[in-house]
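Morning - NAP inputs below, output right after.
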Amino acid sequence: MKQKRKTILITGGSEGIGAQFAEAFSKEGHNLILVARNYIKLNEVKVRLENQYHNRIRIISFDLSKEGSAQKLYDEINEIKIDILINNAGFGMVGESWKQSIEKDERMVQLNISSMMSLMKLILKDMIERDEGIIVNVGSLGGFQPGPYIATYYATKSFVLQYTKAVAKEIKHTSVRIHCLAPGPVRTSFHTKANDYISRFSISTERCVKYTLDYLGTRKVVLIPGFIMRLSLFLPEGIRMYFIEKQKKKAL
Ligand SMILES: NC(=O)c1ccc[n+]([C@@H]2O[C@H](COP(=O)([O-])OP(=O)(O)OC[C@H]3O[C@@H](n4cnc5c(N)ncnc54)[C@H](OP(=O)(O)O)[C@@H]3O)[C@@H](O)[C@H]2O)c1
């Protein structure tokens, strides 16, 4: 390993894209703090990676969909210098918006927007003071247009995209770098939980994370893994919405 050992905070580090980030950073010998609700799954990742890569992993079982949770988490890890934040925990839900549970939508907004934003602000302040650090906010390709039958989720990811782009401009004179990872479909259990089905254009978590790591710490703010996904953004918004509506209706 050529790089200095870093400490990386990954929210949603127990499975899917977050666990893949954990694997990739462990391989490079870095120490990790993994946050998710399910302690057993977190512990499985910790034991597997520590045994394989001999790094140090702290796990924190924590629900980031509760009001004030980002500040509580920050207070718990306050004494630790975070070199990289992977702000990744999130979930989505397919269905007719008026039928979706308000409680679930509010939890989604709290997790995907409020906790993401607050955790970023708290850690970014420290990074700006030190003039070093990297933040990856995990958005989605869904954040580029409205999503019929997945409206709340796509809207939360629009926030992630626009917010990250704005903050990236504000901090461009510093050495801190911030990215919005905006993948199209990635093969994780996200889709089953969201009552969605997995697209045939989906990519692996390995490919998603490798693409991100290739650009980590560069000035490229928006990271979209997969040529087809990047190409799809050249279609007019109405056409993209038509395909999303058609696809999501199939999952109803
Ligand atoms: N998979 C895709 O196609 C795709 C595409 C674009 C963007 N994304 C985004 O990528 C991120 C990761 O998704 P994924 O596909 O890896 O999903 P996943 O496999 O379902 O993993 C989600 C992670 O977030 C954690 N999490 C969920 N709710 C939480 C809460 N309330 N508090 C703390 N942690 C919580 C989960 O652990 P616990 O359940 O134990 O808490 C898990 O570790 C999400 O932000 C998602 O929106 C995914």
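Note: The chain has a mean pLDDT of 96.

O.
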